[in-house]
Amino acid sequence: MTERIYNFSAGPAVLPLEVLEEAQRDLVSLPGVGMSVLEISHRSKAFDEIINGCEADIRKLARIPDYYHVLFLQGGASMQFSMVPMNLLPAGGKADYIITGSWSKKAIKEAQRIGRVNIAATTEAENFKRVPKQEEITLDAEAAYVHITTNETIHGVEWNYDPKVGDVPLVADASSDIFGRPINVTNYALIYAGAQKNLAPAGVTLVFIRDDMLSRSPQGMHTMLDYNTHAKNKSLYNTPPVFAIYVMRLVMKWLLEQGGLEAAESRNKEKAKLIYDVIDSSRFYKGHADADCRSLMNVTFRLPSEDLEKQFVSEATKAGLDGLKGHRSVGGIRASIYNAFPKEGVEALAAFMKEFERTRG
Ligand code: PMP
Fold this sequence. Notes:
alpha/beta, Aspartate Aminotransferase, domain 2, Aspartate Aminotransferase, domain 1, 2 domains, 7-stranded mixed β-sheet, 9 helices, about 35% helix, binds 4'-deoxy-4'-aminopyridoxal-5'-phosphate
């Protein structure tokens, strides 16, 4: 096999090696089917088993009650920025959004095309280094919903609690931390996530939507943008991304075999701690996020100068540690260490950081 380097990319991101190997082994001919998964019809029995098996494992992993629909959509999380308000925000209505980073701001931009958006809280003045405390959130009891971003991929800030929102439905973009830890699905009316970080390759977007939310979609919606279409047709109204769903099915099986979401969380905590410990014990590295809400998935930090950051990234790449450059909008370093990222790779980064500090600090 070609040697694999450590891939710290924020997404599309590393997939479990066992999953890649199974997909490779079965690529030309699915066992018992005699055709590649790339060739089969989405109306075939073989695909029925794949999508239904995937959904069953998702429900098991996240303990999703049957009054939630699990949808496999396309268009990425970015499409959900539009579909959420198009379906849930009535004409003349208003919605509460909490801003914790770049992704929540992108979500708001689309909601503003549909209705009034109230900023229920924002941590922008502190450059998004934390999430707001419950008492800092000003909610509108008449809002159609409250929207949060559970993990800000660019800033490396993750919610460390589910905000209390009374009877108003809570909607979450969980793209970059879904299934990285247990999730209290029943605290949310709708959860969406692009798959290409923790779930699957790019091309499929997961949506969990509580049944009562479906009645909110206005009459005359475009068919493909209406959640009802996908709920009624079990995500098979049109051709779904067959291959991405197939790989997701393998990843869900792998997650269950690894002990489910509780076990994933403890592995992720252990991995993230290896890097945060280096940051905390150093005056050379400076973590971006406050300790109580720093992300288990995207570890963001700075070096004393941009020049040192450039050298860090370039030497790390040469050492087989790829994708560490921070997002262009905030700079610095970002190590994305999703579920499938191996602990040895995190150990290698921690050792590299110590050595870089020793020689440049
Ligand atoms: N939300 C978050 C938190 C993200 O990290 C991303 C992608 N990095 C998106 C939304 C957009 O996702 P997509 O590219 O699937 O549209």
